[in-house]
Every structure is written in C-alpha cells, then in structure tokens.
Amino acid sequence: MQRRDVLKMAAIAGATGALTLDPVKFAQAADRAPGADEVRRVTGHLPTGAPDFVYLPVEVPSGVREIAVSYTYDKPAVPPGTQGNACDIGIFDERGTGLGGRGFRGWSGGARTEFAISAAEATPGYLPGPVRAGTWHIALGPYTVAPQGMEYSVTITLRYGPSGDTPEQVYPPQRAKGRGRTWYRGDNHLHSVYSDGKRTPAEIAAAARAAGLDWITTTEHNTTSAHGAWQGLWGDDLLILTGEEITTRNGHVVALGTDPGVFVDWRYRARDNAFGRFARKIRQAGGLVVPAHPHATCVGCGWKFGFNDADAVEVWNGPFTPDDEVSIAEWDNTLVASVRHRRPWLPAMGNSDAHREPQPVGLPQTVVLADDLSRTAIQEGIRAGRSWICESSKINLKFTATGGPGAHAGIGGRLEVGADAAITVRLEVTGAPGCTAAFVTDQGQLYAAPLPDSGTGTVEWRTTASYAAYVRAEVRHAPADGGASGLPGAMAAMTNPIFLGREE
To answer: Is 0.85 topped by the overall pTM?
Structure first.
C-alpha cells in the first residue's frame, strides 16, 4: 500500500496542524485463519512543510491480542545548516486522537523504531491494555523534513488470540519518612528507557541516592508509561514523584508531581492559544507548571509560550552553559517586572535533564525548604521560592537578610523594614573551593568576594530597601579563560531572591 504526496490526498485538519491518511484495513474474523498474524505495510512521501502530525488510521477487528508497529524513514544528505529528516511516532486507540489524550496509548518520539501493545504488556513508552476493535491511529510526527522530503514506511502487525489480563499499576507513595521541616534536595527532570533515556528506573534511583538526593521526579517525553515502573525503588530515604516532560514544537514544560497515570497532551504550538488549557490540566492533576531549558538551542526547545501560566522556571539545565546564563538573565528580568507591577514573582529551579551515562543525576539539583518529604510539602516550597540550586550535594549554603530588632528573612521571603533601614545580607557557604560569592539586585551585581581556598566562608553586604528591591546570591567558579573575555565563570550555586522593604 502506498500513500504518495499525502498533502495532496487530504486536507490539513484542526488547529494542531494534523493530517489523516486513508485507513489501513485488515480481514474480518470470518475471513482469517485461526491464530494467524496479519501484516500490512504503508509507504509514503512527506514534503517540506508537512503538518506536525500525520495520522494513519488502522481498522482493528475483534480478536486481536497484540498490535505491533515498526517504521523507517530516509535520511538524505543535506547542506550545512539545513535540517535533515527526523520523525517521531506514537499511537492512539479506538477512542480517537482528540486533543486532550483520551485515546492516548503511547509515544516513543524518535527513540524507537518499533513497539508493541497488548493487554499484558507494552514496549516502554506505551501503555498496556486490551487491543479493542475500532479505528486506531498511528501518529507520525515529522519533526524536521529535509528539502528532498521524507520517504517513510510503516509496518503494522496484528496478532490474534485471547486478550489476557492487564496488570494493576503500582505507583510510588506520595510521602517518604523525611526529617521534618528542613532542606531537601531533588532532581525534577529525568529520562529513562521509558522515553529517550538509556538508564533503567533502578539505575536512576541508585544514581539519585549516590548524588545525595531526597527526591526525584520521573518526567518522560509525552508519556506516563514510567509512572508504574518504580516499584521497590522508593524508600524512607527517597521520594519518587510522577510527572511528564510535555514536548511541544515551541518549547518543553515539566509537569512536576502530577497524579500518577495522568497524561497531558503536547500537540499544539504557541500560535494555537492552547497552553493555558493544558497548564490548568497540570494543576488539576496536582502538578506544577515548569518551563524547561527555555533558551536551549535544539529544534523546538526554545520556550515560546510566555511565563504567565508558570509556577516556576528551570533556569539551569544540566552542566552550566551559555543557554543557562541567558535563562537566568531573563528570569532576573521577571523579578524586576514583578516588583514594578506589584505582582507575584516566578521562582527559579534547576534540574539535570540526565538521559544516560555519563550525564550526572543531580547536576544541578534544587534544594527546597519543606515541612516534610512529601509531594505537597515539596511543591509548596518550590511554589513559594523557598529554594536554591547547586551543582552537587557537596555544596551547602545559608542566605539571610536582617534589619533591625527582630526583622529577619530567608530565601523566598520578604524583609519587612522601612525604605532607609539598614539591612545586612549574609551568605554562608561550604563545599565551594575556588569560587566567588556575589550578591545580585534589581540593579545587577553589586558586591562580590572570593571564598577561602577551603570553599567554606561567609560573605556580608549592607544595603537598604530603597537601594535594592531584592537581593539574591550566586556562587561561581573562576572563569575558564581566566577572565580575559569578561564573562563570568560557571555557576556552582544560586538562590532565589529575598525581597527587601514593606509591600505597598
């Protein structure tokens, strides 16, 4: 079966930029041999400018035990600076492809060339369950298309027989033992073999413990299939939250701590004006909305939706790079805007986005002041900005502002003093040898001092609320080029701000 020049064969449908091909049909029960498998192969061509999603309907008859799909596409040479072919894949069942995900059964993006679904099991990235009769849809996502276009081939195999039983999913508990109200360390952006990562959940849990983390969040690309894959890996010392990295064509967002099994759709762009709807769905599922790596340079990674619907923003993603420097500068601008317009401010966080060895889990990590080690308490701390970010558990810090009798504030708080009252800002650091500590305000960096060679030291600075609307701390390594370029060194740790002065 061939589907040539699909853009000429069907109209682009809906705001999601989708195209539906002619259906693939299989024999009915009366026409097939008992126990036989049936195979259909579809080929086609996608030109440059293809829609974001191409749906291939598959008419599944009754009596199917398993549906298996494989696909290929060509990768012709392209000139330097030109994107070549890249095509993702997933599937929706007989409940349909409607935006919102009712029929969603799995997504592997470009990480796999084949998958299978049955009641008893499914390929990682996909959800086990009965293969019911009706029209299923294989979803192709031509992420980028070369100037020559894309030749693709999809092979569908139906295996007949008794359906079998679907195992009950066992999800992580929402609370660990913890240590009461204290600072907890976590990494909220991680990938395993359940999307495009190479580590197993067991390997991630072991790496998290080795990194000194108290909690992690599983965030696979556009699928919840990993939510039930952590049985036996949590414990009193490690809380495991469930979530998703919603990977749109206009940026990625971490749904942090959503209810287990709740899927959030990704099939929209900023121009579709749909993100607010799905941000609300994240919150309805008990999660936080966290735009990820907003200035990453990979195709489709740059954040285009704005920050009005965000609960926090990931300003530091993996080992520190110029992308993170830009993200921090943009985030700092939002702090100034929040002061100017007297509106809520957006907390910063950092996560590793680790996919495979040797990418370290916990570089960076977010350290949160929470009442206990539970989903609710951790999320409350993140939402309130009672947090700081560091490159490893070797670093610890304490950041406070004081001003007069009894006036005291910590990270994420406000020091309630008069505009001209004397304020002392104090940063205590351990575990940062060779680093410099600095204080940053709405005017920019106003004070910096090197830490002792041991990496343990205290830095103080005095100001007033009329001079600085807020102050935050940074701890940086020495510049790689010795300072010749004038650029700062890589971040070792940074805090959310302390706001200064009485709210008007």
So the answer is: yes
